[in-house]
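Researcher: Please translate sequence to structure tokens.
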Amino acid sequence: MAVQLNARRPRLAIVVSSDRRRGAEVFGEALAAGLRPRGWDVDLLSLTTSPGGPSVAATPLSVIAPDALGKLDWSVVAALRRHVRRTGADIVLANGAATLQYAIAAVRAMRRRPRLVYGSIGEPVYWIRSPRHRTLRSLILKGVDRIFSVSATTARQLVDDLGVPPAKVRIAPTGVPQRFFAVTREPSAEVLRIVVAGNLSIEKDPIAALDVVEQVAAVTPVAARFLGSGPLRERLEQEVAARNLTGSVEVLGSVPDLVPHLAWADVLLLASRTEGLPGVPLEAGAAGVPSVVYAVGGAAETVVDGVTGRVVPAGDIAAAAAALVDLATDPQRRLAWGDAARRMVAERFTLEAALDRHIDLLDDELAAHRMGGSRADR
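Model: Translation complete:
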């Protein structure tokens, strides 16, 4: 077969909400890096920038406040449209709900419209506030060609609760980089070391996690680290002081690397109100750290209950605390569950496997784009 020296490389624009180093942004960066050596030209774009913290290698389209993105800013829409036109993107991957309305507004009136894929990273039904909102969300989702959903649970919600045709949804989990599997740990014998990692927001509910830690601390010695930034940081710090937990709980803010903290930890605690497919329990599992998680969204898909950690009912502070107390008194179980977690993540959730899955799905979308496929036939 003759080699086509001038064959055009396919172009992908990955859009994330900001350049702050969070789950969706970090995976977007990893996806871009993984696709480029495999023949794709990839641009990682962020709707805005968040100076002052760890960031990903994204090109910001604006400098508006991240909190202002909820109301459609047409200057950001125009910037995204200009970029797509200038680069001739074949596919736009809107990674996260905050980016979806901007991507739809940017491409819908284009004469040469790229394929539009929505990366659904959260739990769809959590954000539905009323029947009217449900209808509006369903209409918005009709504006995309395909949906990549991070978990089976969230995919079912898209179909069952929002009426998305099953043929439009593909399951595409995120994955864990190899460096997490290289973590060497020294489990504590005297104090249970707990890591809580994530945005300090209502959805991640760090106050609930502190409630759990407080109950555990009343029974057995603990040391806890809260990693992440967000609007609840000041309140969290005040609560730690008010509950006389300053000797046991550290609020460290955003950290450039989770690995040193997983090397320190005995267990990860996830007390979120909602999740898509949380990456932190998978990263902890790869490092040999078991997790205790609330059964929200796809969180239960990251932990095998009684094998790699504990899955407890959503919002059940007492059950989460009891699970941690059990682990505090049984270091051998912590080691066994951590080893099982590392094997499970290695079998199902490596970054390489996630990249392979996304590349296969994007190849399908590229073929549909070149054949002139439209939303109407799905």
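Researcher: Any highlights?
Model: The longest strand covers residues 11-18.
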